[in-house]
Design goal:
The chain has 132 residues and is mostly helical. The protein has 7 helices and 4 strands, in the order βααβααβααβα. The protein has one domain: Rossmann fold (3-Layer(aba) Sandwich). Strands 1-4 form a two-stranded parallel sheet. A two-stranded parallel sheet has the order 2-3.
Amino acid sequence: MIVDSSVWINYLAEKSIWQAKRLDRELDQERHVGLTDVIYTEVLQGIKHDHELLIIERKLLDFPIIRLEGLDDFRRAAQIYRTARRKGHTIRNLADCLIAAVCIREQRPLLHNDVDFDRLAECSDLQLVSPD
């Protein structure tokens, strides 16, 4: 599964939301967890203190980071955004469309805590991780 920054941030802050608990369980069971290059950037941009940056960056680099690949991913992200808009959904952040495009390409479900991904899943082949 791909884990969005909305979950990583809560997990690192030890917040007790179901998504962070699920990530903790997946890590305990040594299941395949990854992130995208965009998610990596989002997590790092929110870190306030430089000493925390190095620690968290090292932790994130232990996981596979799946990168955007060529114009097809960008085209897919634009199409997802346009489809959502036609269905009456305003996606607040283009980065979410880029993340969705990678998840769709890799056929990997997304663990998230962001309503925009619910909207994107309604308009595309994006698979989401559901609560247990």
